[in-house]
Structures are given as C-alpha cells and as structure tokens.
C-alpha cells in the first residue's frame, strides 16, 4: 500500500521519522549522537565529490548534522551496522517533492572499510523500496560529479538510466566548477533494479 504523504509544508517532521533495516544495515534519522563517529573516519578521501567543505572536529560535525536536518526537502539518515550499532556512514533523501512525487538519493559517504561490501547495495535497496513502495515516488534520481568515478560507477551498477550531464553545475569547496552526471529510476524500471540489488546481496553477481 502506498502511503499518503503529508503536504510539503508539513512533511519535514513526519518524514524525518524514517527508519529502515535489512541485509545487515540499519538506517535511522541522523542526529548529534552520530557526530563523533563520523568525525573519526570522514576525511578528504571519503568526502570527495561533496560541494561543501569537509567538517572539522566533533563541533564541525554537529553543525553539519544540524544543517542536514534543517535543509527543506532532505531526510538525512545515519547508516549503522544492524548487529553492532557501528556508524558506517550517512545517506539522504533530498529534493523531495511530495506533490510531484520525485526525490533524489545522495549526500552519501561511508567509512572506507565498507566500500565494496554489501553495505551500499543494502542501503540502496532499503531506500529505493521505501521511495517506490511506501512513498509511491514516480521518479528517483541520482547525481554525481563526473570527476568522482567511484560514485558514478556505483550509480551505474544500480541500473539507473543515464540522463546526461549538466555542465558547470557544481561548485567545489576549492572554488573549481564541475559537471553533474544525472541518472534516474522510474516505477516500471524498479523491479529490474530491485532484482539486480537482490542478486548482488545474495552474492550471485559481484559487488565491485
């Protein structure tokens, strides 16, 4: 059953209650209690491709968490190990439009020890399932700086459809400009994407 979404002006408080769990990952609302763990592992390598400066120290991370939570149309999530509670990273729904029924998934970063594991496909499966099957979204989009080949590759492995490149679309913290590669998934494409993610999580296709 597709949920009835609140009006956009009332959506923030309700949608920030999202909690998702499966395949070893647990996604919970991002809050100040996650700042110390994020500060411990997020460095320039992990933060590559972001359009804001790397937060510095626990106070910097508390400010980053507060900013993420306060951004209209964004549902910021901490990614935890379901068994241990270890903070693996963070990801978000953003540019959420509850009238047009579209959303983007991004602002994603994980501790390097989780790169190339089941973590990212698990998170994407949980988030896409929620977007399409609970919220009833008609479009889920992804974007990445074209220079961030790791992120672009991860999006392509999802089975998202390439839509093109927006030139000079991004401003990096150092003042340089970059291009954004856009991808999307529509409802009729979701079953194939879901099957691909489940195959990766089952180990029948490689997660490289």
TrEMBL record:
Keywords: Transferase. InterPro entries: Acyl_CoA_acyltransferase, GNAT_dom. Residues 26-160 form the N-acetyltransferase domain. It comes from the Bacteria. The keyword Transferase applies. GO terms for molecular function: acyltransferase activity, transferring groups other than amino-acyl groups. Pfam families: Acetyltransf_3 (PF13302). This is N-acetyltransferase.
């Amino acid at each position: 059953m597709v949920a009835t979404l609140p009006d956009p002006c009332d959506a923030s408080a309700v949608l920030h209650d999202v909690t998702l769990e499966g395949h070893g990952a647990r996604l919970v609302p991002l809050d100040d209690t996650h700042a110390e763990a994020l500060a411990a592992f997020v460095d320039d390598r992990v933060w590559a491709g972001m359009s804001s400066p790397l937060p510095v120290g626990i106070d910097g991370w508390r400010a980053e968490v507060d900013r993420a939570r306060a951004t209209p149309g964004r549902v910021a999530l901490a990614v935890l190990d379901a068994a241990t509670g270890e903070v693996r990273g963070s990801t978000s729904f953003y540019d959420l439009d509850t009238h047009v029924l579209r959303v983007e998934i991004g602002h994603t970063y994980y501790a390097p020890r989780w790169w190339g594991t089941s973590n990212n496909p698990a998170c994407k499966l949980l988030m896409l399932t929620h977007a399409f099957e609970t919220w009833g979204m008609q479009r889920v989009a992804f974007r990445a700086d074209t220079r961030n080949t790791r992120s672009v590759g991860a999006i392509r492995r999802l089975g998202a459809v390439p839509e093109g490149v927006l030139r000079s679309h991004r401003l990096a913290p150092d003042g340089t400009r970059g291009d954004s590669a856009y991808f999307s998934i529509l409802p009729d494409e979701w079953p194939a994407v879901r099957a691909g993610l489940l195959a990766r999580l089952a180990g029948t296709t490689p997660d490289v």
